[in-house]
Specification:
This protein is α/β, with parallel strands linked by helices and 266 residues long. Helices cover 41% and strands 25% of the residues. The chain has one domain (40-64, 103-264): P-loop containing nucleotide triphosphate hydrolases (Rossmann fold, 3-Layer(aba) Sandwich), CATH 3.40.50. A six-stranded mixed sheet has the order 8-9-10-3-11-12, with helices on both faces. A hairpin with a 2-residue loop joins strand 1 and strand 2 (29-39). It is globular and about 50 Å long. Bound molecules: adenosine-5'-diphosphate (ADP) and magnesium ion. Keywords: ATP-binding, Cell membrane, Membrane, Nucleotide-binding, Transport. It is a peripheral membrane protein. It comes from Roseospira navarrensis.
């Protein structure tokens, strides 16, 4: 037992992300009931679960878009220090710490969330300039390289409203990459897309996985999760119901709940 605990903490020390026993209440309702997770460099963790199981809340707690009510989060072995406010929500102890955390942990949302009043290029240049103080020429050069990478070099002067959903999401991914995140969180990145646009976004994500990026991906794209993730988690009712290598979960689900969840999708 002790050796196991030692191994677990040694594993956590060189992990990109180590989450310990995160809980979240909304009022009296507990929607996360103790979630722990460790991600090492290059891990691509797919998070599955029915609507309302707590997937988004979990991801949002990791960069404090939501405040957990208990638990600890470490990035590269460094704990994000928090303090409980009067309502019992854990908040980072300083604004500086929060800004730094958000610079290190990128997030890609279902609804893209590009800044509508800025061109694609300006969307990518903004955060590195403001948060990192990167010189403009360098930020532009980097943004152009990233737009090339996601296949949007020729759209750099477009406003988001003039792009397809798939293009907007690829731009949003490039914007996240512009901050050189150590970890990228994806919350159903293809759920808002017309079916014919899903593939182009998954292809970009697949290339990030192949580069060895560390990613947590909430998705309903089961074939993608199975092919691309290094580990798959199934959440149910605010807990990890089952986790393991994707082939095990998909071919050989142990829990009845996961079995039902998968059979509904087939
Ligand atoms: P998922 O992403 O798996 O669909 P969510 O994390 O969005 O699930 O939601 C988990 C539970 O928390 C749901 O029951 C949802 O209604 C509840 N919830 C989410 N956000 C809030 C909120 N801001 N206030 C109250 N309840 C919330
Ligand atoms: Mg959700």
């Amino acid at each position: 037992m002790e050796a196991e605990a030692d191994a677990a903490s040694a594993g956590a020390a060189d992990a990109v992300l180590a989450v310990e026993d995160i809980h979240k209440h909304f009022g009296r309702i507990e929607v996360l009931r103790g979630i722990s997770l460790t991600a090492h460099t290059g891990d691509v963790i797919a998070i599955l679960g029915s609507s309302g199981s707590g997937k988004s809340t979990f991801l949002r707690c990791l960069n404090f878009l939501e405040t957990p009510t208990a638990g600890r989060i470490h990035l590269h072995g460094e704990e994000i220090r928090t303090r409980a406010d009067r309502a019992g929500a854990l908040r980072p102890t300083s604004h500086r710490q929060l800004t730094r955390l958000r610079a290190r942990v990128g997030m890609v949302f279902q609804q893209f969330n590009l800044w509508p009043h800025m061109t694609v290029l300006a969307n990518l240049v903004e955060a590195p300039r403001r948060v990192r103080g990167m010189p403009r020429a360098e930020a532009v050069e980097k943004a152009e390289a990233l737009l090339e990478k996601v296949g949007l070099a020729d759209r750099r002067h477009y406003y988001p409203a003039h792009l397809s959903g798939g293009q907007q999401q690829r731009a949003a991914i490039a914007r996240t990459l512009a901050m050189d995140p150590e970890l990228i969180l994806f919350d159903e990145p293809t759920s808002a897309l017309d079916p014919e646009l899903v593939g182009e976004v998954l292809t970009v994500m697949e290339s990030l996985a192949a580069e060895g990026r560390t990613m947590l991906i909430v998705t309903h794209e089961m074939a993608f999760a199975r092919d691309v993730s290094t580990r798959t988690l199934f959440l149910h009712d605010g807990r990890v119901e089952e986790e393991g290598p994707p082939d095990d979960l998909f071919s050989n689900p142990r829990s009845e709940r996961l079995r039902k969840f998968l059979s509904r999708l087939l």
